[in-house]
Specification:
By secondary structure, the protein is mostly helical. It has helices at 2-14, 25-31, 45-55, 61-77, 81-101, 104-121, 125-142, 148-165, 169-183, 198-212, 227-234, 240-255, 259-262, 272-301, 311-330, 350-363, 367-373, 375-381, 386-394, 399-406, 411-446, and strands at 33-36, 39-42, 336-340, 343-347.
Length: 448
């Protein structure tokens, strides 16, 4: 009982009506202090996360939002493996409750927290559980056409948890269908079609293509026959972010060699002549699509200014579509390099680039930390930080030995220095003797 009362006091720190900077999550995160009268006690990170989970039970929405913000920052700044091991189920259920009952802001934060939870756990039973329990609620929440930030966060969450927890192609394709229905809803008697905003279209295409990178040609063609034409139509939209997302998705489809599946396959027929005619018609259709897309990409790679967009946006579009054009015409995929601390993460395919860009956007300020320490991301990108390689060698000796070895005044270091000095002296002696021998031989040649 006393422990619960103490936790309630801790939650009170987050439960405030003030809107100034003192009550923001960054204040909670940076201070990590429990104030009790005049006494201040430094809290460890687990205690702060425990308090935040307790705060998710509170009735006041603003309290839950602040707690979620702090949880997100904690998961971004460190990989909370111990906390996840103990509290992952509790955190998941409370985040799902926030998606059920929260404001648009709370739903966005809870969605992001669930994605970070999955990234921290990595593949396995926990990730599968996160996916199975989250999908029904996310599906329901996506059907409400409300704030863009909320829909975008739900889409990102769905993409991340499926990327990690989706073991079967059917699970991934199910999530892709849910995303697709945001821009192509199945209309019923009680459903009114609403035109999605450019930001939502971009979010759908980005999340959808992120999952497509994992499919390896195992998609059901019947589900996606309209998609190529749709992506092609997006290249003519006014919004540049929509055009770039669609262009990169088309490049990915060409890269994995699925244009035929996405544009529809010829149906079988008992009449061989009819079958050949269908195949011929399908071939012409696909070549026509290729030509149309190539012309669109070529025009966007050379587009002049206009439409009032910033020069930076225009340059970004030109660069993106020049890379897409280079790939479609010559098969050259873009090669990129991203600095991760003192290391470089390189990509050489559209698949890798789309995965990298999506995870960079999702993780934001936590991207470098996760790329340095997250084993799952190391496996995804085939990336091993040099620091990790060194740690692999250092783990063979104890921490005390490491300190002794690294200390400039340590016995080990002094011994190593003495050994190096001896080697230098021996080298000098050998060199000196060799020089003297050469001199003697030279003198012998001079003698009559």
């Amino acid at each position: 009982m006393g422990k619960r009362n103490s936790q309630r006091k801790n939650v009170a720190m987050l439960d405030s009506d003030d809107d100034d900077s003192a009550s923001t999550s960054s204040s909670v995160r940076s201070d990590l202090m429990l104030v009790s009268g005049a006494e201040e006690v430094q809290l460890d990170k687990d205690s702060v996360l425990d308090q935040c989970v307790d705060a998710l039970y509170e009735k006041r929405g603003s309290t839950r939002e602040k707690a979620l913000s702090t949880i997100i920052e904690s998961f971004n700044s460190n990989l909370q493996h111990e906390f996840v091991e103990k509290k992952s189920v509790t955190l998941l259920h409370q985040c799902l409750n926030s998606i059920k009952r929260g404001s648009a802001k709370e739903i966005s934060l809870a969605s992001h927290a669930i994605g970070l939870l999955a990234l921290t756990t990595g593949p396995g039973d926990k990730a599968k559980e996160i996916l199975e329990e989250s999908v029904p609620l996310i599906s329901q929440a996506l059907k409400s056409r409300s704030e863009t930030s909320k829909i975008s966060s739900l889409l990102e969450c769905l993409a991340v948890i499926t990327f990690i927890g989706g073991n079967e192609p059917e699970e991934t394709e199910n999530s892709m269908q849910m995303m697709w229905q945001v821009v192509h809803p199945k209309l019923g008697s009680n459903v009114v079609a609403t035109k999605p905003s450019p930001a939502i279209i971009t979010a759908v295409v980005s999340a959808w293509s992120f999952l497509l990178t994992t499919m390896d040609g195992s998609l059901d063609p019947k589900n996606w026959q309209e998609s190529i034409s749709y992506f092609s139509s997006l290249l003519d939209k006014d919004d540049r972010s929509v055009r770039i997302a669609a262009g990169e998705t088309l490049a990915l489809i060409f890269e994995i060699g699925n244009l035929e599946k996405f544009s529809g396959e010829a149906k079988g027929s008992s009449d061989s002549s009819s079958h050949e005619e269908n195949n011929s018609r399908e071939f012409v259709h696909i070549q026509g699509l290729r030509g149309k897309i190539l012309n669109q990409v070529r025009n966007l790679a050379m587009e002049a200014g206009g439409k009032g967009s910033a020069k930076k946006d225009l340059n970004s579009q030109r660069n993106s579509f020049r890379e897409i054009l280079e790939f479609l015409e010559y098969g050259n995929s873009p090669v990129t390099s991203v600095k991760i601390g003192g290391d470089s993460l390189n990509t050489t395919t559209w698949c890798q680039l789309i995965q990298l860009n999506f995870l960079k956007r999702f993780l934001g300020g936590g991207f470098v930390k996760h790329m340095q320490d997250n084993e799952f991301l190391h496996d995804v990108f085939g990336f091993t930080p040099k620091r990790k390689q060194l740690l692999g060698l250092e783990n063979r000796i104890s921490s005390t030995e490491k300190r002794l070895y690294k200390s400039p005044n340590s016995v080990v270091n002094k011994a190593r220095t003495q050994s190096l000095n001896k080697q230098r002296m021996l080298s000098q002696v050998v060199f000196s003797e060799q020089r003297n021998s050469c001199f003697l031989i030279f003198l012998l040649f001079l003698l009559p």
